[in-house]
């Protein structure tokens, strides 16, 4: 009788140990999904007081300041030494991801050193960028001249392309790891 009790205690302890090991191994994977897409160092450089509306109104007054912006790519154009990305500004949400709301305060330009492929950095993709304000650039937009704030990229995150499913539900509940098709 005593041996049976000890064996049961041992089996129970082994189960708890196995559970603890599983939780310990899964924790980094769970928390990685919540990590910001921009480095902590870059986030510390950002001027938190500067709103996009102020930047849009007078980019020259904010030259050299570091900003965090995001939105949807409108156009990508390559030059010999850099890439220009025109972005429709969107408010940033969870993990600094541009929201899907139909809200925008305007447009801005990002210059990135080197080549960024327009087939990947294509119209509609969401980006989040940390960069220095360089000033303004006037460009035609339809029949008007539009004043774009210009940002020189320090860090840029291109969000994974979103697949839109009309037939399936948009909300899923569950616990665990799964594969979606």
Describe this structure in words.
Helices cover 24% and strands 33% of the residues. It is α+β, with helices and mostly antiparallel strands and 181 residues long. The protein folds into two domains: 1-33; 40-158, Nucleic acid-binding proteins (OB fold (Dihydrolipoamide Acetyltransferase, E2P), Beta Barrel), CATH 2.40.50. The chain is elongated, with a radius of gyration of 24 Å. The relative contact order is 0.15.
For this entry, give a set of tags:
OB fold (Dihydrolipoamide Acetyltransferase, E2P); alpha+beta; 181 residues; five-stranded mixed barrel; 2 domains
CATH architecture of the largest domain: Beta Barrel
Number of helical segments with 4 or more residues: 3
- The top-level CATH class of the largest domain is Mainly Beta
Shape descriptor: elongated
Largest sheet: 5 strands, mixed, barrel
**How much helix, percentage-wise, in residues?**
10-25%
Short overview:
This protein is of the alpha+beta class. It contains three helices and five strands. Strands 1-2-3-5-4 form a five-stranded mixed barrel.
